[in-house]
Specification:
single chain, alpha+beta, seven-stranded mixed sheet, 9 helices, 18 strands
Amino acid sequence: MKRFTVILIALLMMLPVGSSAQRKHASYVIGFYNLENLFDTVHDEGKNDYQYLPDGQNQWTEAKYRKKQHNMATVIKAMKEDNGAWHAVLGVSEIENRHVLEDLVSQPEIADANYQIVHYDGPDNRGVDVALLYKPEILKVITSESIPFTFAPSRIDFSEWTKEEMDRFRTRDVLMVRGTIDGEMFAFFVTHLPSRLGGKGADLRPRGAEIIYKRAMELQKEFPGIKIVVMGDMNDNPTDISMTDFMRGKEKIKSVTDEDFFSPFLSMLKAGYSSLYYRGEGNIYDIILVNNAIANAPKGTFQIQPIVQKKYYGRVFSKPFMTNQSGDYKGTPFRTFSGGAFVGGYSDHYPTYIVIKK
């Protein structure tokens, strides 16, 4: 018996780390965080970043920049402590360039996560982009692309826009990253849809969603069974037409088909959850959607999990240190600037995330 036990232990030690036998019940956190204007202190040629320079409107010094980096890393670490694991994938928005992300992932609070970066410089006038942070031992990146905003072809009528207005319009590209997790094909879309400009701006977010949806359906056709996650600051709620119509976001997981997306934050918004406040009202603009291959996954493959009260499939992550505790803005995100003054907070958005598990 003793000899048998020694042989068994030796065989177990020979199993490779991360083998299917060990990882069949693996779960991973996938999230999104609007970092609220993570700019460095150096001017980027051709970008309107002047207010984030030492002599600019915000007097954006190295000390303020270091504080901002520390704050962002503190939130990411707090999520890790809550979940017992780093995010496998974290989409981010409102970042100026790759440099600020390299500074972020090297912060002592999160350096152990060994996050890698996928980022493209985009055409946004202010110079803010989206990006993806990921753990390379979990997500094996195969390819990525930066998808530009275009006005056509679209089922939206843009006849009120002149050609000159269309040519001048600049916004963030959509990032798509495709790879595998434990051998399963995934595609991650990270977006920051156009802001609420008023007037003509109302059609821009549905158009952005239309662009994402079209590319997602192409990927489903090209790679049957691919699991797709769409995340971002949509500048719309999950109840708005950009999400319900153009992204075909469904509230009930059982009603999702291969042409739809499951929208877990739709029911959470109705239940009173908020990831930010706009004009005094709580909203969830920081939305994550998953396709049917994740919502109603085949047995033994990654599926989205209920994580809040055992019934909500998403989480808005907030802690007291991230939240104003007094004053007119009590109960809202503790942001970097307030009333034009640097207050040393975190972001005007709370991060959101989902969990997938085999």
